[in-house]
Amino acid sequence: MKSPPEEAVCADCGKLHARSAMELSFKRPDDVAALSAEQRKTQAMESDDLCAIWPGRFFVRGVLPLQVREWGKPYRIGVWVEVERSVFDRVRELWDAEAQDQEPAFVASLANAIPSCPPTTGLPAMLKLTGPTSRPDVLIPPSDHPLHREQCLGISAHRANEYSSHF
User: Fold this and answer.
1) pLDDT of res. 165
2) Residue 1's pLDDT is what?
3) Residue 3: its pLDDT value, please?
4) How far is residue 167's CA from residue 161's CA, in Å, rounded to a whole number?
């Protein structure tokens, strides 16, 4: 199998960037990003891994792995999921735990609209902790949604590049 190039030319600036830096990634959950600057100051708690909108919405950042058939490695879309308060608290409790990957997956829902897909905001998902030095995996449970098929069957390098074009 052909490995993915370690670097690729950016479509915007024409410079070489690390392939991992060109994977599609969302900086914040869509509903947090939609808040005004004032609302974000008064109603939101934000970090690069966890977010909350007071009084009762909670988000965790993860990666949605899609195996690229030609590369034998996954393409990872950086997404946010919304979770219940109890899940948010448990994730925070386990954040630095070495054995966090032993924890069962948590029920979640996608909190980003992924381009070139049918609607994804609110799509049921599972959040699986993977270790204290890596972001959790986001898994799409069985459904008719194309993301579930892509996660199960993999994607082509062309499809990975299509996702990156939205970066």
Assistant:
1) 84
2) 37
3) 46
4) 10
Query: How many CB atoms within 10 Å of residue 87?
Result: 17
pLDDT-flagged residues of the chain (< 70) = 1-22, 167
Calpha distance 111→109 (Å, rounded): 6
Tokens in use for 102?
Answer: 């032993």
Q: What is the 3-state secondary structure (H, E, C) of the chain?
A: CCCCCCEEECCCCCCEEEHHHHCCECCCCHHHHCCCHHHHHHHEEECCCEEEECCCEEEEEEEEEEEECCCCEEEEEEEEEEECHHHHHHHHHHCCCCCHHHCCCEEEEECCCCCCCCCCCCCEEEEECCCCCCCCEEECCCCCCHHHHHHHHCECHHHHHHHHCCC
What is the residue type of 34?
A
* Phi, psi (deg, nearest 5) at residue 32: -75, -45
User: What confidence score (pLDDT) does residue 13 get?
Assistant: 56
Tokens of 115: 């381009």
Q: Which tokens in the block code for residue 45?
A: 């708690």
The identity of residue 121, as a single letter, is T
Evaluated on CA atoms 52, 56, 62, 63, the torsion sign reads negative
